[in-house]
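Study this chain:
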Amino acid sequence: MAKMLRSLLFGVLALLAQGKAVYSLWHPLGGIDPMVVFFVWQALAALATALFVSDILPPHYRRARSGAFVHVFVICLFLPVAGLVLFLSLILVALMFPTPPDDVPIEAVEAPQFATYLVSRVTHGTGARLRARLENLRAPAGDRVAALVAMQSLPSRISSGLLHDLLSDPIEEIRLLAYGIVDGTEKEIMQKIFVARAQLERAAGGSERGLACSRLAELYWELIYQHLVQGEVYRYTLEQVESFAQQALAQGQEAAVMCYLLGRCALLRNAAERAEEFFRRAQALRFPADRLAPWLAEVAFLKGDYERIPPLLDTLNKATATPFLQPIVRYWSQ
C-alpha cells in the first residue's frame, strides 16, 4: 500500500511540475530569466517522472532500474511535455493490455517408440505410402516394382497421375509396367465406348438413345478424369462429353448427372459463368450437395467472389472430406 501511494505521489508531482514549467513560460516572473525558471521546473518534472517510472517497473526489470531512471530522466528533460506523455502512454497501454499469465504447466515427455508390429494393421493412407515408395528414386528397384504392382489395386483416379509420371522413370522395368497399366485401363474404357456406340446405333426409341448417350458421356469423361488423354485427343474427348451429355439432356435422361458433367467441362474451358449455370441446374435436380460444393467454390474463386467460398465449403464435413480438399477447407474456414 505504501509503495502504491509513493508511486502515485511521484506521478502527481511529475504532472504538477510539468504544468508549472509550461506555465512559467507564459507567465514569467519579473527580473528572472523565464528560461532559467522553465529549466528548473522541467528538471523537477523529469526527476519526478523518472522516480515514478522506475518505481512501477515490473520485478524482472528491476535489475536495470538505475539505467531506466537515467533513460527516463534524460528523455523527459530534453523533450518537455512529449517525454511525460510518452511514458504515461506506455504505462496506459501496459495497463490496458497486460501480459497473459504464463502459468501453463510444462513437462518433459518421452518420445514414443515406433511399434513395427502394428504397421501391417494400418489400412488408411495406402495410396500415400505407395506413392512415397515409388517416388523415392533411391529405394531398391524391387521395392518400387512391388509398390507399383500393389498400386493396381487402388482406384484409377488415385493412381493415374503417378502412373503417367512413371512413364519417364529411369528404370525401364517400371516404365514398361506403368505403360502396361495405363494402356490396359485406356483399352478397357475404349472397349466400353465401342459397346455403348453400338447400342446407340441400335437404339430405336428416345429413351434408349438417351441412356446410350448418357453412358457415352460418362465413359468419355472417365478418360479425362483418369488423365488418359492429352493434346488434341483431350480436346476431342471433351467435345464428345459435351455432345453426348447435351443429347442425353435432350432425351430427358440422367439430367442431374449430365448437368454436373457439363459444368465440369465448362470449368475445364475456363467458362465460370456457364459452369455455374450447369451446377445450379444440377443442384435444382437434387445432385448431391457435397459433390457440388467444391466446384461451386471454384467458380466463385474464378469470378473473384471470395466471400461466397467459406459458406460453400462449410457445408462439407471436415472429417469426411478427401485428403486433397481438407487443407483447402481448413484454409477458407479460418
Remarks:
- The mean pLDDT is 81.
- The two ends are 46 Å apart (CA to CA).
